[in-house]
């Protein structure tokens, strides 16, 4: 099989002509082309979201112009980002991409491959595992849901696929990294499928050069079969000139465990939908979210924990610290279907305002149809307590050191839940580096 | 030459309310001073003003350390200059481990010129030291891994303050009711520890309503504060008198200060 590569140095616009030319470069099976074409048609008929849409009321994208970008393709130059999650970690596999094009072949432990584990970029794997990919691709996220979802489904590149067969445990983590050049696009797609009783850990991260302009329009699809166990980490640390739009969804089965850690540090503006469907009895899902914003960043995260079956537990904790004039929007929803009795649902969002100009909006919500459930939600938002700063100063901390310690401590509750040391350390370091003085 | 901490005609306001109305007090290294007075008389205010709490505005007077006015110094600069206060009500810092907090604190106080980001004192050395101090205070080693004052019992909090005193080894220490909220055994242990750590070494300003702490750390001087002013200074027999007989004599003898004290107490209650 010849790997499918994109033509270099030709910039395809997001137009009918550009899209048609893009399809030409792909050499994909018919079913996949159809998926892309349906999404392109949908993309054309939908308007951009506006402040009249509930989810976009607080998130203004009028300055976003798709015309300034080109359909993801290798642009002749390669950016080298700086991955941090895999530092000192013994990995079983890794994949990297730049501008939505794989940079080099993905790596994967052959012993794992022998056990039937599949890992690599989707384009690499389509030839050999086309039917398997077809069975799952765009089955979890709704690629026609809104204009960004449709845009992604039509023009995504550089997907990674992880498949772990029944009862196979991939003990060491898998690492994926995406970066972009200045002016580039990353439309990466992640598809993770764990069959019954399978286990894996995936560390995914994205970043690019400090001042680089860019666009990420992505999707993550996760399926965890009965008794499966997945730890998924997603660290978004794009430059503060990147637009970031993403739909991320997991569907988990009976007696499963999903631990999903989210680091939301980068981007100019981010709008992310994170959705977990608990689709089997006794599934448990823990989400650990860490947000840190500064300057004029605007991060909007919308979570949905959907209990479809009885006896499941979901526990979403997002903590944010906001510096300068930055802004976060967190909108959480616990949805409990009528048959999902004995649901234990928890959601919480705490924010620490490091400047009088920062603003955090928390909108927790419940939609409960079952009558025997326990669902709790809450949110807090406040400034760093001056009494704590004073106390630490009395012990010799400078004001800045005191604030840094207090802010890092504020996040510790989330870090304490994260079971992967390299992730805890990378997040703590990223945050303590960002904390400046308190205005 | 011995270090001297001297407070001259200190006036302190919170908002526009004057709390301290001309306090004079001079302490030399190695001396123990008891500061006594009824609730609301201004004892904690004096301590917090010495440390430089931002809400406590010094409107008149000076605080001199070895002749130099420290009023313009940040609280951390005062700490690095060798002044310490054990808080009456320490605050919790969730997520910050006691050991990490103290290692950073100890490093800064021992190296007053340290710049942010420079190395902390070596872990091994620090561990050894904190362990020895914790053993002396009969603190479980688990304690160092807990978050600063977070969920501590009253007694644990006070012990943690003494641990910090032991680690930071200041020249002058204000101990604000470090014996309150402790059971009888714990008071004895705290009193003995303070004696070992600082008595006759540091300059101690002991604020207390009880007698045990002073029994183990007999004061060279006792100051009585009432209505934001030190109205009387004596030896350790003055502390003994107040413990035995309360403040009736003082109130009668200084009716004007007593009136100020009662008024501000009443006001504080009205606010509550
Ligand atoms: N933050 C504050 N705002 C307003 N008034 C205050 C504040 N802190 C203290 N005060 C007032 O200042 C006065 C002195 O209080 P301070 O805490 O110094 O008393 P104290 O002598 O330490 O009393 P206690 O023995 O009860 O600890 C009181 O009237 C109190 O109400
Ligand atoms: Mg007091």
Can you walk me through this structure?
The complex is a heterodimer of chains A (439) and B (272). By secondary structure, chain A is an alpha/beta fold. Chain A is built from 8 helices and 21 strands. Chain A has one domain. Chain A is 22% helix and 37% strand. In chain A, strands 1, 2, 3, 6, 9, 11, 13, 15, 17, 19 and 21 form an 11-stranded mixed β-sheet that branches. In chain A, a hairpin with a 2-residue loop joins strand 1 and strand 2 (101-102). The relative contact order of chain A is 0.10. By secondary structure, chain B is of the alpha/beta class. Chain B has one domain: P-loop containing nucleotide triphosphate hydrolases (Rossmann fold), CATH 3.40.50.300. Chain B is built from 10 helices and 12 strands. Chain B has helices spanning 43-51, 75-80, 98-110, 123-136, 154-168, 184-198, 212-216, 236-245, 248-253, 255-271; strands spanning 4-14, 17-28, 32-36, 56-65, 68-69, 83-86, 93-97, 147-148, 172-176, 203-207, 221-226, 229-234. The radius of gyration of chain B is 18 Å and the shape is globular. Chain A binds chain B through residues 385-388, 390-402, 405-406, 408-413, and chain B through 51-55, 74-76, 78-80, 84-85, 87, 90-91, 93-96, 100-102, 104-109, 116, 147, 164, 168. The complex binds adenosine-5'-triphosphate and magnesium ion (MG). Residues 43-44, 88, 176 of chain B line the site of magnesium ion (MG).
Q: What is the arithmetic mean of pLDDT of chain B?
A: 94
How many distinct domains of chain A?
1
What is the subunit organization of this protein? heterodimer
Rg of chain B (C-alpha, Å): 18 Å
Radius of gyration of chain A: 21 Å
Number of strands of chain B: 12
Biggest sheet of chain B: strands side by side, in what order? 6-9-10-3-11-12
Q: How far from one another are the termini of chain B?
A: 47 Å
Strand residue content of chain A = 35-45%
Structural class computed from helices and strand pairing of chain A: alpha/beta
Strand residue content of chain B: 25-35%
- List cofactors, ions and other ligands: adenosine-5'-triphosphate, magnesium ion
Mean pLDDT of chain A: 94
Stated plainly, the CATH topology of chain B is called Rossmann fold
